[in-house]
Amino acid sequence: DYEKCILCYKCVEACGPQWQNTFAIAVAGRGFDAHIAAEYDAELPDSACVYCGNCIAVCPTGALMFTSEHDMRAAGTWDEGRQTQTDTICPYCGVGCQVTLHVQDNSIVKVTSPSDHSVTHGNLCIKGRFGFQHVQNRG
What is the pLDDT of residues 1-21, one digit of tens each? Predict the structure, then answer.
């Protein structure tokens, strides 16, 4: 929901020099026309985006969020009070990233990583953040 964007530039920093060094997200336009976009205002599939989701992790307003969270909020089924959180280690490689599984109604609805973890510092790759469908039947 880009209407929620307050131009804090946290996503730009997370995608750029702060963590990812992909520089797929930038500020397009100037002055009152400034907005967050893929570099050169290109479509996301045509950009350098590696779909790590670190921009989602740092967004303070919900302008960027998991598709599952967005869909559940639109359907009125998102309820953080009913969600449990389980800390575990990402199963994809040997780096040892800590992930927190957010589970609602016996389904993983999103994956985060604690910002104070010495390995991840809150960041994950595409597999760690979005590769949880293999543990449950999504139909």
Answer: 778 889 999 999 988 877 778
Sign of CA dihedral 26, 32, 33, 36: positive
Burial class (CB in 10 A: 0-12, 13-18, 19+), 88: exposed
What span, in angstroms and rounded, lies between the C-alpha atoms of 136 and 53? Answer: 21
Question: What's the predicted TM-score (pTM) here?
Answer: 0.79
What confidence tens digit (pLDDT) does each residue in 40-62 have?
777 878 888 888 888 888 899 98
Bridge partners (DSSP) of residue 38 are 25
Torsion over CA of 61, 23, 97 and 108, rounded to 10 degrees? 40
| Separation CA 58–CA 62 (nearest Å) | 9
Alpha-carbon gap, residue 24 to 6, rounded angstroms: 19
